[in-house]
Design a protein that fits this description.
Keywords: ATP-binding, Golgi apparatus, Lipid transport, Magnesium, Membrane, Metal-binding, Nucleotide-binding, Translocase, Transmembrane, Transmembrane helix, Transport. There is one protein chain. The longest helix is centred in the C-terminal third of the chain and has 41 residues, at 855-895. Strand 19 and strand 20 (555-559) form a beta hairpin. The protein has 4 domains: 167-317, Distorted Sandwich (Calcium-transporting ATPase, cytoplasmic transduction domain A); 374-393 and 858-1069, no CATH class; 419-428 and 688-850, HAD superfamily/HAD-like (Rossmann fold); 433-460 and 483-505 and 519-684, Calcium-transporting ATPase, cytoplasmic domain N. It is elongated. It is an alpha+beta fold and 1079 residues long. Strands 13-32-31-30-14-26-29-28-27 form a 9-stranded mixed beta sheet, sandwiched between helices. It has a 9-stranded antiparallel beta sheet with strand order 16-15-25-24-23-22-21-20-19. The protein has a 6-stranded antiparallel beta sheet with strand order 2-1-3-12-4-10.
Amino acid sequence: MVRPCPSVGPRGRLRAWPGARELAPSLRARPARCRRLLPRGGAAPAGGGAEAGPGGGPGCAGGAAVKAGDMTDNIPLQPVRQKKRMDSRPRAGCGEWLRCCGGGEPRPRTVWLGHPEKRDQRYPRNVINNQKYNFFTFLPGGFVLAVTIIREAVEEIRCYMRDKEVNSQVYSRLTARGTVKVKSSSIQVGDLIIVEKNQRVPADMIFLRTSEKNGSCFLRTDQLDGETDWKLRLPVACTQRLPTAADLLQIRSYVYAEEPNIDIHNFVGTFTREDSDPPISESLSIENALWAGTVTASGTVVGVVLYTGRELRSVMNTSNPRSKIGLFDLEVNCLTKILFAALVVVALVMVALQHFAGRWYLQIIRFLLLFSNIIPISLRVNLDMGKIVYSWVIRRDSKIPGTVVRSSTIPEQLGRISYLLTDKTGTLTQNEMVFKRLHLGTVAYGLDSMDEVQSHIFSIYTQQPQDPPAQKGSAPTTKVRRTMSSRVHEAVKAIALCHNVTPVYESNGVTDQAEAEKQYEDSCRVYQASSPDEVALVQWTESVGLTLVGRDQSSMQLRTPGDQILNFTILQLFPFTYESKRMGIIVRDESTGEITFYMKGADVVMAGIVQYNDWLEEECGNMAREGLRVLVVAKKSLAEEQYQDFEARYVQAKLSVHDRSLKVATVIESLEMEMELLCLTGVEDQLQADVRPTLETLRNAGIKVWMLTGDKLETATCTAKNAHLVTRNQDIHIFRLVTNRGEAHLELNAFRRKHDCALVISGDSLEVCLKYYEYEFMELACQCPAVVCCRCAPTQKARIVRLLQERTGRLTCAVGDGGNDVSMIQESDCGVGVEGKEGKQASLAADFSITQFRHLGRLLMVHGRNSYKRSAALSQFVIHRSLCISAMQAVFSSVFYFASVPLYQGFLIIGYSTIYTMFPVFSLVLDKDVKSEVAMLYPELYKDLLKGRPLSYKTFLIWVLISIYQGSTIMYGALLLFESEFVHIVAISFTSLILTELLMVALTIQTWHWLMTVAELLSLACYVASLVFLHEFIDVYFIATLSFLWKVSVITLVSCLPLYVLKYLRRRFSPPSYSKLTS
């Protein structure tokens, strides 16, 4: 018996593998090589087998003589006896491919004329098919594109539906025919729109009328400026006085408004009514504006539309944040480019080894298509699906409840943070203000002595109009006590009046709202203000006996300890701004007629306003060092004539269209002189829970923490110490205030001489340093263990983040809770928003949203670390999977004279990267090297990731070498062990390849999850089950033999066992840090 030739069939036809006819020209072109494989004389020895040629390729063996130049498609061979099959039913085939891989053999036939029912076998369809590709060829690329397109389409559809919902909201429009319903998208400039309570304001409008008795309304602005406190808005006075809303259409009036801009805190305009005699003009400011996106919290309002569409304040403030692409994705893209270069090189080498014969440029294209598996098309799909899993795991973590993943594209970023930039108020602190100190200069009252303040207030309001005559010995004491009582009373009254707080009465189930408001029910009262500081101050005055019980646009009511109601008329109100850093109010006491100007503000501005004293600066510093937020309270009594003169100038300034804010500020400043200093107030913002251990964990993980705050230097420094941002054994270098280049140079030199000390610098000094010595300053600052920047503007915060990214090349994470942190959050590589007292604006703009700062530790140490390590392992395995099959294709092509013939076709190439290996490889997203408790206990494990070792050029090269070794081992093992059955190369190599991939995944997993076991078994079961349907590619009878099974097992072990031994030796003698903890 003569062994069958691996390259030719028993009936003289070349038949070895798919595309065998394409292989024939390659063999014909190399007659000399085939001649070298035969014994001298041209005949093979009896019983000779398929000998391996010098290049590792199979020889043209058999018992036939082959002459030089006679290598054709029809090669004479001796007959070969084939083992008869039990199954004589021929299979449907597709030419040479089927015959190669166990399909039905061509047989003689007897054809009956006109009797199709007498056919004894199935014959191929009479169809001509010259197509090179089929449906399965394009399935991988189509799947990748489909996943990406579907994900983007779903996001876009959701966005469209949200927009449609907002644009379809129905409002009432005032017209000459009455009120008509109109969609939000149909509202135009000049329309008179009615907005009901708890309804969204559809466009930027001027407030004309309200149904509220007090002639004002409240707005919820949390979706615009991030502040949860309600804002008071006032209607235009002359339109509010009209009998009905319909009368707005009967008057001749117009609004002059400034051009559209992004400033949501200011507005300049005028309202003019022409049909009155004389014409009425009123100035319009932010108090009269209703911006789109806000919600009316009280009453029904009528407004005239000023701006719509892209001219809305909210739209103009919506900057398009940069599309964040993770560093991990950039590294993967870089590796993909390297693989593409390797693809081109392999194709060129293959053509070069053919000596660029014939139309070589077409051969290059064919080889590029043939080895296209080198580029892992499924890598992007696997990584995107992995990110979805990481996001789901973060949301489901019960130890960080309320955490929301708003950007599922960058979870790996959390595992490589080098710099954390955090806000102070509301982020490190609770933004819950507690009144701690009242300082009158000569005496200070703390929490333990507030009862003395209460007794002073009680004595003032309960003493008789005519005091009984005092005894001689007690006269001085009484006088001193009365003096101190009056001083305390003046301070408390100033604090109770100088604010922008409004008491709101809500029904509590027992008392309805109207009754509660009428009786000033304490249990139903809620304070609303734009600042939690002000609410804390008013709540404190209530606790000592002076209660704010009512307020509207023009009046305020206080209740004394004796249940008397004190009425005050509000003449003017000057709200707090970040520029002025103070707020003021002018009130008239209805009982006495006295006009008083009260003011409170930061010590830096109030020091120049109050009368000379020798204790203000020192005590402000002392209170700030205790971590208290300090406000200076002052007053000034005004005569009637003095106030009338001021009011005339103030109204005139407010009517100005050009430079209005400057003119108004100038008029107000004329009053702000020689004011009487009443007291200092100290309010504490308490630290959030577990801030200290969280910061210590981050510091041990190698993350440097910078605190960027708008608060004053002393308070920021105190909070940094209190939170242990600066450790006890670290020095603090407070950067002196510098205003020019020379001062900055000297201060930087002084700072350079310090070592291992924290830096505290103000925003003004920072601006000067960055202007002249940007590189030097950033170099010194990056060496500090901690940096505190106080008095920072939002734009400065974003600039610091940008400079850190540019100068260090490291990843940054910004954490904040307010609208002023949005720019910093969006600029950072990974933005985290804290849902707090200041609303959700920072949370909505961030990539990740948490409810407490302490959750940040687990988010980084556990989820960030796991996400990065899992994605690294996943990407390496997907690349390994692609390179493995490409290495086998390279060996296959080189054995057969560098022919561009595919090793696998049809469903096999699709199934390999999908149902046969996808689930085990993807199950690596569930793997973890240590438990979450260990990762939190040893944050030093996080520090190892900062070097980027899980996915580096070194690990990439190692996996490339592993892939080449395993692919070559499987292919050459098939050549070596299956020389007599080489016609079944597809079944041999493909089975070994699947087993190798599954075994490699199993050897890599460090912590088994039940889904990983299911994935391994399911993939193996899918492969075994699919053999029934893959008879076109694989001969089931052949792979059921014992010889096939033990030889495939040997090939698989040879491809995997050496790698496992090397891995074991490495872990034995040079274990990674995490293995020391797990062992």
